[in-house]
Design a protein that fits this description.
about 325 residues; five-stranded antiparallel β-sheet; elongated
């Protein structure tokens, strides 16, 4: 765990989430930020004969502000994995939910923030293609609930309730969030299920849809046209009264206080991360998500060392054989 935090410190010292595109930071370090509503990719350096320890740190996007205050913050997830060189990683980086500062007569719920996902693309090593390694949930949008939207439900994988305090749900793991009654906003998209619509706007798309768009408007609120779309990464649409749920591993529910999306770190099967961390929030001034990457080449025995080891083993085998012959005489 000490090594994990040491890697994380070096990344944060050199990378800023305010950068608007992918960038190489320095030896073994990269930073990615939102650069349009599409998937980005990163490839592990080196060849398939080389092994790397790779740490990812992902931040979800912020929920949109509305009549009741400011949207919730996205969550942060990080973990280290071992990959062979040439492994391709898919990055889906969330965008903040749109905000609106309207009053009770015209409507005004902010859109949910998009979640940020890190997943395998090919099968050079580790989990099968398409396996999500990390998901950092987006914050919930705020409607007419006084105070603010729900922060990402960091550390559980479950999405957040729509309500004051935005507690964490106990069901719907990996699925989209609920919408509630008409005009309360769209639920956030999850890994394997889209968020529900509320009759005025759509919920956020599922990660497995291949294009995790945020929810948008399809019916104007009372003819006013006031509306706030959810952010890329599965954020649910804001609506007449309520804020959209945040996207994430599980989508947040929509409501007066939109619930945040759930964060997640992969540890399935026999391929477990070297150490995961789920906690804290993304306070980036841009409101968008990000991914920081640190890769370190793992040491391998040199040819001379291998030859020396082989010679030593051969000598031990010969000595044992002679001792056996002496015992049999």
């Amino acid at each position: 765990m000490k090594r994990l935090w040491a890697l994380g410190t070096s990344v944060f010292a050199l990378a800023s989430p305010g950068i608007a595109s992918a960038a190489y930071v320095g030896p073994g370090q990269w930073k990615y930020a939102y650069a349009g509503a599409s998937m980005q990719t990163w490839t592990v350096p080196g060849t398939s004969a080389q092994s790397y320890t790779v740490m990812f740190t992902a931040g979800g996007a912020k929920g949109g502000s509305g009549a009741g205050g400011v949207g919730g913050y996205g969550g942060v997830a990080k973990s280290s994995f071992v990959f062979l060189g040439g492994t391709v990683i898919n990055l889906t980086i969330g965008h903040y939910g749109q905000g609106t500062y309207q009053n009770a007569t015209t409507g005004g719920g902010g859109g949910g923030g998009g979640g940020t996902f890190v997943a395998t693309s090919n099968s050079n090593s580790g989990p099968a293609p398409g396996t999500v390694l990390l998901a950092a949930g987006g914050g919930g949008g705020i409607g007419f609930g006084a105070g603010g939207g729900g922060d990402s439900a960091t550390g559980s994988g479950y999405g957040g309730y729509a309500g004051a305090g935005a507690g964490i749900k106990s069901g719907g793991w990996g699925y989209g969030g609920y919408a509630g009654s008409a005009g309360m906003g769209g639920g956030g998209g999850g890994w394997n299920g889209a968020g529900a619509g509320d009759g005025y706007g759509y919920g956020g798309a599922a990660y497995t849809s291949g294009h995790m768009v945020g929810g948008s408007q399809y019916v104007a609120c009372g003819g006013s046209g006031i509306f706030a779309s959810g952010g890329f990464g599965g954020g649910g649409a804001g609506s007449c009264l309520g804020g959209g749920g945040g996207g994430g591993w599980s989508g947040g529910d929509a409501g007066l206080y939109g619930g945040g999306g759930g964060s997640f770190a992969y540890s399935g099967g026999s391929y477990s991360p070297m150490g995961g961390y789920l906690g804290g929030f993304n306070y980036s001034p841009t409101g968008n998500g990000y991914v920081y990457i640190s890769a370190q080449l793992r040491p391998t025995p040199e040819p001379a060392s291998l030859a020396l080891l082989g010679g030593g083993l051969a000598a031990i085998g010969l000595l044992r054989r002679r001792r056996g012959m002496l015992r049999n005489k």
